[in-house]
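Our platform keeps sequence and structure together, in a single record for each protein. Such a record has a labelled line for the sequence and another for the backbone structure tokens. Nothing more is needed to write down the fold, since each code stands for a local backbone conformation. For reference, a complete record is included directly beneath this paragraph:
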Amino acid sequence: MRVAVIDNTEVSPLGQVGVALREADAEIQVFRPWAGEALPDGAYHDALVVMGGEQNALADATHPYLPELARLIRRMGQAEKAVLGLCLGAQMIARAWGAKNHLGTVPEFGWTPISRTEAGRDDPVLSVLPDQFVSFQWHKDSFDLPPGALHLARNAATESQSFRIGRATYAMQFHFEASRSVVDLWSREFAATTERIRPGWTKDQPKLAAQFGPDADAAGLALARAWVSVI
């Protein structure tokens, strides 16, 4: 199992997705186009993971690799290879398949409840979760569903939390990869930013992690294992 991971920012741990890939003894290759590295062509790899990032999905002027990334996402999906997009990665999947990206319209930060749709209950990946689960969020952008997509999850703030295109292209707006250790790392690395987004976060984060983290970690690992199983 050969998996290409596209990093879109400097601090982008694989978290629970990395746990599931290592359990499956996957060969993981990480590409950092933001640092000038070339993207893969998609021929060698069985699956693609597109991580989050601080840029938006239409930021071609500052991140000129994004159009080629969109083409790679679509090319691998059309080949029925497994594709997973997390946050920005989900927004890039929406772009790749012709949906509209909405910038700055739906800010969410912290652990939030998310609900499966009817299609999510029957989906090979989302079906491993209860109808309502908790996951970590950090975004302000969203997207419409692409034509032909199956709508898998929503919440009160963001209607498009997850969708699937074809056999195994999954867009996840929420950061299910973000275990408590990942959230702790982000909170330390981006302390000024998190305090600006959510005043008091530094003080409250340990308490919130204890309250919501165990369930979110379990849901994230279940999702990661289920996605790896479709590769």
User: Anything to note?
Assistant: The chain is about 35% helix and 25% strand. The CA atoms of residues 2 and 27 lie 5 Å apart. The longest helix spans residues 201-229.
